[in-house]
């Protein structure tokens, strides 16, 4: 199973993914990473009810627009934290969950800031720090 959560549905891309391996079920759900945590939990409840388990979460949403400070932080960091926090409730082994793998997509600016885009760089550094904390 492959579940895609995104703001914009791309039927051509979904068809291409299905063609790569017809045995894989590809499902799309509309999702905006900037929604409140409760909405993310509600969507994941629907996903887990359908699939029973999810093995891998890839957090890949991101924008580079330092003129939109709040949106940049909301998409690049807060949304990632909320999505991760929401899925951990389903994966928590202490509560009988199966566990899972998280892949947070970042940027080299998370390690080496670029002075022209300080907000973007800071949001990606926050992702690195958050991910490192979870790994421990």
UniProtKB/TrEMBL annotation:
It holds the Pfam family adh_short. GO terms for cellular component: cytoplasm. It catalyses: a primary alcohol + NAD(+) = an aldehyde + NADH + H(+); a secondary alcohol + NAD(+) = a ketone + NADH + H(+). GO terms for biological process: alcohol metabolic process. Keywords: NAD, Oxidoreductase. Its EC number is 1.1.1.1. InterPro entries: ADH_Drosophila-type (IPR002425), NAD(P)-bd_dom_sf (IPR036291), Sc_DH/Rdtase_CS (IPR020904), SDR_fam (IPR002347). The keyword Nucleotide-binding does not apply. The keyword Hydrolase does not apply. GO terms for molecular function: alcohol dehydrogenase (NAD+) activity. Gene3D superfamilies: NAD(P)-binding Rossmann-like Domain. Belongs to the short-chain dehydrogenases/reductases (SDR) family. Homodimer. This is Alcohol dehydrogenase. It comes from Drosophila sulfurigaster. The gene is ADH.
């Amino acid at each position: 199973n492959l579940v895609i959560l995104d703001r914009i549905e791309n039927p051509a891309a979904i068809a291409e993914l299905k063609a790569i391996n017809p045995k894989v079920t590809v499902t799309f759900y509309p999702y905006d990473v900037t929604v409140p945590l409760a909405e993310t939990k509600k969507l994941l409840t629907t996903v887990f009810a359908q699939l029973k388990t999810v093995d891998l979460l890839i957090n890949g949403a991101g924008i580079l627009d330092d003129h939109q400070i709040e949106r940049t932080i909301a998409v690049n960091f807060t949304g990632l934290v909320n999505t991760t926090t929401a899925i951990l409730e389903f994966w928590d082994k202490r509560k009988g969950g199966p566990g899972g793998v998280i892949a947070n997509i970042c940027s080299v600016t998370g390690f080496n800031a670029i002075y022209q885009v300080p907000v973007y760089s800071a949001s990606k550094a926050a992702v690195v720090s958050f991910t490192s904390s979870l790994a421990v």
